[in-house]
Amino acid sequence: MRVLIVDDDPDCRLILQLMLAKLDWDLHFAENGVDGLAAAKVLQPDLILMDLLMPQMTGLEAVAAMRATPALAGTAVFAITAMAFEQERHMAFAAGFDVVITKPFSRRHLVEAIQRQFPGLELAPWKVPA
Q1: What is the pLDDT of residues 61-105, one digit of tens each?
Q2: Residue 72 to residues 62, 80, 123: CA-CA distances in angstroms?
Q3: What is the CATH number of the domain that holds 86?
Q4: Mean pLDDT of 42-50
Q5: What would the DSSP string read from start to end of 15-64?
Q6: Beta carbons within 8 Å of 21's beta carbon, 6+ residues apart
Q7: Confidence class of residue 127 from pLDDT cuts 50, 70 and 90?
Q8: 97: domain range?
Q9: In a domain, 99, yes or no
């Protein structure tokens, strides 16, 4: 599975990388919405994990541009955000995000959300920690 992680915070990118490391997926990274949109067009990822608040282009702007791009319109895009208010969640879904995950979150929470989005995805022999 090819995954694009888009976040301006290097610590957040590293945490997501470590959470997904045991899955042996093809991970790619971008530091802002502009670079994330460009990378998504080239990589055609299966899943994009993207922060909402970034410089140059927010996650809301980037996902709206992705949804307007035919090759990316059906790509699974998860918002990874510290913005926990219901209004922000509604804005994220309205912009085109499929899932909103609020920071902080566990590896289990992330993997379970991925499994719900990709029900046929085989993650064995990796076990989600309790």
Answers
A1: 999 999 999 999 999 999 999 877 888 899 999 999 999 999 889
A2: 11, 19, 24
A3: 3.40.50.2300
A4: 98
A5: HHHHHHGGGT-EEEEESSHHHHHHHHHHH--SEEEE-SS-SSS-HHHHHH
A6: none
A7: low
A8: 2-117
A9: yes
